[in-house]
Amino acid sequence: MQPKNDNVKVDLELIQKLRERTNCGMLDCKKALIESNGDLDKAVEYLRKKGSAVAAKRSDNATAEGLVHAYIHAGSRLGVLLELNCETDFVARTEAVKQFAHDVCMHIAAARPLYLNPEQVDPKMVEKEMDIYREQLVASGKPEKIIDQIVQGKMAKFYSEVCLLNQQFIKNDQLTIDELLKELIGKVGENIRIKRFARFEVGVN
């Protein structure tokens, strides 16, 4: 990042553009643009790094408060329940957290994740998937020394399909749900966790 120019002028239109891209507050957006010398893309990166830093710093903080959000899709044949945990009831009631919960519920409805994160995937399913990939690679004549590396890459893609936190956000495929969560943590300054979710669809087991 370039050295900060304390005299840089940031107009309201640019602040608004950054706010639309990141959902961060006006003051945070203004500061990010000043830190980035008015460069919009660098300001987005600055805010994301800030969110990741806050998330790492507060990751061990207890999350005993929170909310349960319900989303029913048009036609009432599809619904999602999501539990979010955070540090205080005050943050749980903020519009930023409520909007995040709603967006994630809509994502779950569309993307159909099966698990929250890779740690929750059934070990037998993981082993089965890895065995299938290895057999395919051996059959295709891939050198033994690179098979494990390729398998790990394929498993990363597998997790991005079945694990909520690893999925690309349907409203912005430049972010995973985990990255979106870290942005929220950076915005509100508290540890927040997605504890669990349930997706219900009529006629689907």
From TrEMBL:
Keywords: Cytoplasm, Elongation factor, Protein biosynthesis
Region Involved in Mg(2+) ion dislocation from EF-Tu: start-end pairs: 88-91
Regions that span the bilayer: none
Domain (Translation elongation factor EFTs/EF1B dimerisation) ranges: 44-203
Lineage: superkingdom: Bacteria
GO cellular component terms, A-Z: cytoplasm
GO molecular function: translation elongation factor activity
Gene3D superfamilies xrefs: 1.10.286.20, DNA helicase RuvA subunit, C-terminal domain, Elongation factor Ts, dimerisation domain
NCBIfam families reported for this sequence: tsf
Function of the protein: Associates with the EF-Tu.GDP complex and induces the exchange of GDP to GTP. It remains bound to the aminoacyl-tRNA.EF-Tu.GTP complex up to the GTP hydrolysis stage on the ribosome.
Similarity remark: Belongs to the EF-Ts family.
Protein's recorded name: Elongation factor Ts
Source organism: candidate division TM6 bacterium JCVI TM6SC1
